[in-house]
Amino acid sequence: MIQHWYINNIIHFQAYCVTEPGAGSDVASIKTKAVKKGDKYILNGQKMWITNGGVANWYFVLARTDPDPKCSPGKAFSGFIVERDSPGVTPGRKEINMGQRASDTRGITFEDVEVPAENLMAVEGAGFKIAMGAFDRTRPPVAAGAVGLAQRALDEATKYSMERKTMGQEICKHQAVAFMLADMCIGVETARLAVLKSAWEIDQGRRNTYYASIAKCLAGDVANMCATNAVQIFGGNGYNTEYPVEKLMRDAKIYQIYEGTAQIQRMIISREWLTQAKNKH
User: Fold this and answer.
1) Phi-psi category of 122—alpha, beta or left, where left has phi over 0 and alpha has psi -120 to 50?
2) Closest of 99, 128, 104, 123 to residue 26, by C-alpha
3) 134-174: per-residue pLDDT in tens?
């Protein structure tokens, strides 16, 4: 099947087009529509904050295929593979963001784009399930990135604290600074274990929604805590672009926003936990 070719052809760049200007955490509010005409679908809509938007060869696009506003999200949306070079596909300008500026992030406009029916993922109405299922696979590696940033912040803060002296001794010997480093160590190690657990669950062939959200939520929060502590330990130097930690602080914030906000992760975690609890009784 053509879908297998796209998925297995790793030399191609892909982009995941779900978020829209008016639909981020509220995926059910997506306005992009796909209307079937003969052996094609006509796609119209706008996506926003799309990573790899300007370099991808093809996009996964979530669009509404059932026009009935009362239709549940689980049946209203479908997933499509859309070629970047298709007429009517227009990537916007590269966004200049607070951090992670090497990421190619853009808006994508789809105007009367003809998509072959064979590029429909699975069947009509399966898009929401596909999109949500993808997050179970993508949140662990995003969390891993957050752990890496947290580790870098800890390493930089540790090195600086062992060199910088105040009151006749290295600042790492002051309990106030030592305790900040200790908190960073606790966060890094526990977040790393959460990432490994969420990835291991996938390897066991089990649904990892619960663990993926825990890893993503914890690692994002830890990355921000570690970056903030690192800037504090650097003092005035930490606020300056000549030193590395201000960039880490800017880069860290997005880990609490993309791939599902920290608040959305907590909603998922609590829902999954309560579902498990109910099933036990």
Assistant:
1) left
2) 128
3) 999 999 999 999 999 999 999 999 999 999 999 999 999 99
Give the Cα separation of 204 and 277 in Å (integer).
Answer: 22
Tokens of 263: 């608040």
Helices (H), 69-120: 73-76
Q: Within a 13 Å sphere around the CA of 198, how many CA atoms are in the beta-carbon half?
A: 28
pLDDT higher than threshold 60 for residue 238: yes
- What are the distances in angstroms from CA 15 to CA 25, 74, 99, 107, 235? 18, 22, 19, 11, 39
Report pTM: 0.92
The model's confidence at residue 26, banded by pLDDT at 50, 70 and 90, is confident
If phi > 0 it is left, if psi is from -120 to 50 it is alpha, else beta; for residue 108 that is beta
DSSP secondary structure letter of residue 59: E
Joined tokens for residue 81: 């593979």
Query: What three-state secondary structure class fits 95?
Result: coil
Give the three-class secondary structure for 71.
coil
- Range 107-126 average pLDDT: 96
Cβ–Cβ under 8 Å, residues 181 and 161: yes
Could you identify the residue written with the tokens 């916007």?
92
Q: Are 41 and 35 in contact (CB under 8 A)?
A: yes
Catalytically annotated residues: 259
Q: Give whole-number Cα distances, 69 to 121, 149, 277, in Å.
A: 22, 42, 33
The model's confidence at residue 10, banded by pLDDT at 50, 70 and 90, is low
DSSP track, 114-161: EEEGGGB-SSTT-HHHHHHHHHHHHHHHHHHHHHHHHHHHHHHHHHHH
Cβ atoms < 10 Å from Cβ of 167 = 7
182 pLDDT more than 80: yes
